[in-house]
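Q: Hi! First time doing this. I have a protein sequence and I read that you can turn it into a structure. Is that right? Here it is:
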Amino acid sequence: MVSRRQGGRCFFVLGDARGGSGITFLKLFSGNHSLKIPKKMQRPFLRALLLCFSVLLSGPTLQAQQARGPVAEALRQFEAYKPTIEAREDAIVEGPEAISGDLNGDGLTDCLLYFILLPQGGGNAITGRQTAVYLNNGTGMKVDGAFPELDVCYVPEAIEKGVIRMRLYECAPPYNTEKGARYYRWKSRKLERVR
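A: Yes, that's right. Below is the predicted 3D structure, encoded as C-alpha cells:
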C-alpha cells in the first residue's frame, strides 16, 4: 500500500517483504529522507495515522466548531450575515451578546444571539431588538429562526433546562429600569411563554 500527500513531498509505504498478507515493514519518505518504522512502533504509528485521516475526513465544519466551540461558530455566522440585517432594517447592529445552553434537550450547546438596532444617523434611541436562535446539530450551528416582536423590552439572560430567562426593562431611555423577568421555551421554531 502506498499513500502520497499531494505534490509528492511526503508518502509512506506499507508492505510485506515475505509476500504474505501481514505488514512487515513501514517506511516514511519526505523529500530526500526516509525513515523505517521499527516493528514495535508500527501499530501505534498506524493508529495515529488513522486518527489523522479520520479528522481530515470529518469535514471543515466539525473541525471549525470543535476548534472554536458552538458560541464562536454562531458568532462567526452572525458576523457574516450582519450586513444583510443592517441593510434590511436600515439600522446599525449593536452587539450581539451570546447566551448559550441546551434549548431543545439534545444535550448539545445551542446559542441565542441578542442584539439591538440603532438609527443609522446616530443617537441613543434603540429602534429595535432582536434575538437570533442557533441550534447545534452535532456538526455545526444552524440558524433556527428569531424571536418575534415582544410587547416588552428584554434581554435574554440564561438558558437552563431548555427555559430561557429574560430580564425585562422599561422601553425608554436610559433603558436600565428593570421590570422583572419572564420565562420562555423555544419550541418548533416558536417562542412560547412558560411563566
